[in-house]
Amino acid sequence: MATILFVVPRFHTNLFFATRALLEADHRVEVAVADVADGEDHTYVRPLCVGPEPDAGSLRALVDRVRPDLVIVRGSPALIRHASVAARRHGREVAVFRYDQRPATRMTSLGRRLRNALGGIPARRITPVPGLQAEAPRDPMAVCIPFPVAALPHDPLARPSDGPVRVLCVGKLAQRRKNQHLLIAALRSLASASRRFELTLVGSSTRQASGAAESFYDAHLAAVRAKPWIELLSDRPFAEMTALYAAHDICVLPSVGEPLGSSPIEGIAYGTIPVVSVEAGSAGFVDHGRTGLRVDMSMDGALTEALASLLDDPALRKRLSDGTRRLAEDELSPARSVARTEALLPTP
């Protein structure tokens, strides 16, 4: 059994699955966060809130108490340096990795490596983002450990077998770069008597996110009033997402500037088909035409074309849904995630 310490901004939903898998593999897990948000699931791990910039003394005390074998830290250079120094002051070997969401295919320059070394920053990094090109060279400083996914127990929502195709989009509702308006426009152009579909928009209503605007949120409300096939669900807790993923056929992430974008990947455990912008890190998990569809949002009509192909072809939906389940059970399984993490532990 090993002790693993995460020092991260918050206990994001994808960390829920990773920490649960490690605990079920008999490891001890501690999580220190900058902030605790509403709706998080702390069933397995109750994070310790240490604030956004804990000082060196606080991190030393944390590491002294936890005595980790592996430290994974994300934050400012000062935070990463303090955590690294605190971990290495023990008279035993501790593996320390910084966490980021830069693709594993993005090389760490020689200059960056030198600055990291001089600044006390760990040389190696963990990223959950594989990159779009599977055959591209990998950064030797990077270890790609995708967050695992798993289907959780849930009460199925009632769905008639001959009902409409259900499309889900998860993202902050006031943040323009999430591009829900482009998804609505694409579906509006496809609406016809022969195409039956429904769209569910889910996300935080916060106006505090970068680029958030009251007018953008209001536009979503207006769209819901104008189109009976759109439903908006704001500020839903993580516990409700399981049933929502399972109740939808397709999960669309049309965002730009999205380092990861985990919602369509969380949905694959339920066979929900991911349609992901190539500007989202999670597009790297999508084998186009096998486990979902990738969409270049800079190309006019690309999203409309992708959605039309799914709405009009039940056989394609079935094939892609089966492919997503296989992806969840293999490459993105909890067991695979645990094995990748265990490979980082110091050797006795």
Total beta strands: 13
CATH architectural grouping of the largest domain: 3-Layer(aba) Sandwich
Strand order of the largest sheet: 3-2-1-4-5-6-7
Can you write the helix and strand succession as a string? EHEEHEHEHEEEHEHEHEHEEHHH
Number of domains: 2
If you average the pLDDT, what whole number results?
94
- The helix-and-strand class reads alpha/beta
Beta-sheet strand percentage? 15-25%
Largest sheet composition: 7 strands, parallel
What does this protein structure show overall?
It comes from Jannaschia rubra. One of its GO terms (molecular function) is D-inositol-3-phosphate glycosyltransferase activity. 33% of the residues lie in helices and 17% in strands. By secondary structure, the chain is of the alpha/beta class. α1 packs across α11 (334-342). The longest helix has 16 residues, at 314-329. The chain is elongated.
Q: Main traits of this protein?
A:
alpha/beta, Rossmann fold, 7-stranded parallel beta sheet, 11 helices, D-inositol 3-phosphate glycosyltransferase, EC 2.4.1.250, transferase, Glyco_trans_1
Brief rundown of the structure:
The chain is of the alpha/beta class and 348 residues long. 33% of the residues lie in helices and 17% in strands.
Reconstruct the topology from this structure.
Blueprint: E1 3-8, H1 13-24, E2 28-33, E3 48-49, H2 56-66, E4 70-73, H3 77-88, E5 95-99, H4 110-118, E6 125-127, E7 142-144, E8 165-170, H5 180-190, E9 197-203, H6 214-226, E10 230-234, H7 238-246, E11 250-253, H8 263-266, E12 273-277, E13 293-295, H9 302-311, H10 314-329, H11 334-342
Parallel strand pairs: 1-2, 1-4, 2-3, 4-5, 5-6, 6-7, 8-9, 8-11, 9-10, 11-12, 12-13
Helix pairs in contact: 1-11, 2-3, 5-9
